Amino acid sequence: MSETTSTKGIWKVITASSLGTLIEWYDFYIFGSLAVVISTKFFPSDNPTAAFLSTLATFAAGFVVRPFGALFFGRLGDIIGRKYTFMVTLLLMGGATFLIGCIPSYESIGFWAPLAVLILRLLQGLALGGEYGGAATYVAEHSPANQRGYWTSWIQTMATFGLFISLMVILGTRAILSPEEFDAWGWRVPFWISIIMVVVSYVIRRKMHESPVFAKAKAEGKTTTNPLKESFGNKLNLKFVLLALFGAAMGQGVVWYTGQFYAMSFLKTVMFVESSQVDALLGIALLLATPFFIFFGWLSDKLGRKPIMMLGMLLAILLYRPIYDKMYKTTDIVNKTEIAANAKNEVILKEVKEGKMDSVYTANKEFTDGTKWTQIKSVHLENGQPVLVDGKAKADTKTVVTINNDDRWMLIFLVFIQVIFVTMVYGPIAAFLVEMFPVKIRYTSMSLPYHVGNGIFGGLLPAISTYFVTTAKDDGDPQFYLQGLWYPIVIASISFLIGMVYLKYKNNVEHD
């Protein structure tokens, strides 16, 4: 198969592919970005921690089914073509996201609310499983072989931009609406907005032409009628599928979701930093780091994919614990000096549904560096007495830390460093995966290891790591906040060792 040597029209291909990819990732990230709010809407409110973990599990379910989407849509992409397949995935993803914003709350329809969310999350995961392989393959097959890392890295930036835009839409919605309006219905707006973006992307994608490499293969009768069998029934190709998964995609997946999702979850639920502050500082860190996707994609054309990806994993393995220790201690009020005169404590009786009352205790503290700490404890009352659960008064506690400017920039820097690790492992990986497999089974073969690595190993990370932290805290571990990092460190270490031993210096296979 002759390789593409011209970059004529490549920016049109990049724009059309990237816009759709950006929107699909925006749709996917909205759920994760609003996980704390969603947990109060679609799950029982009796146990906020259990509701949040249930939300993370539902979020993870969308990742778990991504490999099935990779198989289903990968097969279609290798038989029908790249263009039409990822048009379908775009519409499926956008429709599911819009509908999540329309589901009534748990208080309105009970069990049907979390069930409907789960089903739509599964559809999102299936769609995303077919999107990435199509977009990466489509761009790579329009690119010269010696520039694949550079051109496909533009696709890699779109996942981060999708998260960035989702954060900006959420911040914008919060700014326009009052806190009460956002909590009541405003959180649905980012879900609704996605349908407008999907329509625009569909119109653009509809005008695209099929990949020239695939079109040539199809014209010459060199495509396959059974890509699943040829991808996984062939021992040599299966070997490369497994090598791509365990030597690269698995480690890349956990580094990606630690730097961009777990960091956000950690800031909000472990450090208790105020939600809009987290969204803003994460957005700044992402914006600053995003150009490095392009840089490391370009550099991989010069040095090879392996050295850059392996170095990114190694740095993450060695530095995650020091980084997260610094993050936690930066805002820990134990390390700050309180202004005792400004401390305020209030008790408020608040009427809730069914004529019941809650006794709300509010504690406010201020510190010399400008940090503010607020804790709201709501004790449930019935007939004037606390409602007892297992002999203890039933109470919900919410802590919010408003950080000062110096701490904000320190946290931006620490998240930025984590995203640099992401750019190192993620920038070159599209070109790396494309080059491992022949054209006729490329969509299927590259999609599966990518989505198992990201969907299973990466997608489960927020739920698993949060569970480790919660368990360690309950056990009284003084460094409970670091225990969630063992999951990404162990997985990345295994991937690093396999990659170093079995991956060749540059690329494993050249098929074109």
TrEMBL record:
The chain crosses the membrane at residues 50-73, 85-106, 112-130, 151-173, 185-204, 240-260, 280-300, 307-324, 409-434, 446-465, 485-503. It is a multi-pass membrane protein. It is found in: Cell membrane. Residues 13-507 form the Major facilitator superfamily (MFS) profile domain. Pfam families: Sugar_tr. InterPro entries: MFS_dom, MFS_sugar_transport-like, MFS_trans_sf, Sugar_transporter_CS. Its main location: membrane. CDD domains: MFS_ShiA_like. GO terms for cellular component: plasma membrane. It comes from the Bacteria. The keyword DNA damage does not apply. One of its GO terms (molecular function) is transmembrane transporter activity. SUPFAM superfamilies: MFS general substrate transporter (SSF103473). The keyword Transmembrane helix applies. Keywords: Cell membrane, Membrane, Transmembrane, Transmembrane helix, Transport. This is MFS transporter.
